[in-house]
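Methods: example folding runs. The two proteins below were folded one after another, and each record is reproduced exactly as written to the output file, sequence line first and structure-token line second.
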Amino acid sequence: MPRGSFLTFLLHLHPRSIPEVSAKVGFTWCLGGLAIWMFALEVVSGALLMLYYVPAPAGAYLSIQEIAYVAPYGFFIRNIHYWAGQIMVSLVVLHMIRVFITGSFAPPRQWNWVIGLSLLVGTLVVDFTGYLLVWDDRSLWAWTIARNVADSAPIVGPLVASLLFGASEVGATLLVRLYAWHVFLLPGIMGLFMAWHFWRIRKDGGISAPL
């Protein structure tokens, strides 16, 4: 990429000037931006956990124990991954509440509100699938309940339950499917939606005023 094009790209991401009211620090300042940093931390820490995790019903829980008690710095990295995920969920929820209260979903930002809602759903689902990957008794029951709830939805329920949670019986491919959703598919889809979200922010006139 030519140097001029690269600088133009950077200026598109970080404009030289923003409205003064948008730069004032308030209690809702940069909730979305902080959520992005948590997402990046999740990607890095998750990539390290992938080196030890075994996505199979017979080995998943044992691999978690190895990460926590045997692998160098495994307990620290796993806790970073866990707490960054919980903080990300909280930040995204608070960000959506802030957008709703300030009316920032009104035109011309209505489509970005829909994108934001999609990212909220993605955040909750990726957090839940991470909880299932531990595959202890609580995870097994959580998977059972979630799959039955999804399966009971009209028309698309069985398809969604099968695609997201796998077969109704615990098998060798079950955790592979959950692992694929948690590690590759959901983060990839969310990354694309985040890029679209940022582009819409610029297109719709920049970030909205803080509460």
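Second run, written to the same file directly after the first:
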Amino acid sequence: MGAFRGALTLGRVARKSWRWWAGAALLVAVTAGTVSVAQLAEAHVRTADSFATEDVSLEGNERLTREDVLGIAALQVGDNVFEVAPEVATSRLLAHPWIAEASVRRELPSRFVISIREHRAVALLSLDGLYLVSEDGSVFKRVAPGEVADLPVVTGVDRGRFTRDLNYRTGVLTEAVALLHDYRGAGLWRREPISEVHVEVDEGISLYVGEDGMRVRLGRSPYREKLVRLRRILIQLKSQEARAEYVHLDNIRRPDRVTVRLR
């Protein structure tokens, strides 16, 4: 009787074991089938003509051509839309020095939408070479051959301090860009274009303006009222057919006092 029960128990164990292995084999087969189906699906969408890129929409480019942008992003009409992921294309665009912001969106079945914002250079910074400064006061690239534009040059910046001191770097360029904006607002740009913005040792600012490089010492900010006063002075001198060699508006004790030396 004991032998019979033992044989019965072994039989049950064998049946359970067989069922487990059968289930496992079925699971492996189903999983393999699922992977195979997924691979076939992926192969299809990567080769099907219906997923070939038919259009790449682009907005925001001014300096860079359409061919430049698509080449940087590695997106081309005719390529499969799944060949390049949107986030990869975006990273490639943001790595380009002239591109400040970028986004890439895939629209199935056959379209990409690219939007970029380029840096707008408003000045040149003179350090160990010339660098382009954007309208937000950041340095975004070294000037390459053929890139030098008719822009004011910021000089007198302490290179060592600029390199190691973030507050100084941010402050000096932000102030220079704000001054350029105020200069335009005062109606001076057409009359006396700026050739140089010089940062003095005391961190005050002097401008060199006009074809003859007239020096205008402004001192420390704020600058708006000083620039309005400068405009009045230049209009008065022109009415007298006179020209200043320099104009100083940096008298701290007597802000209303202006020193002018005529040529």
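Comment on the second run: The chain has three domains: 2-47, 51-118, 121-262.
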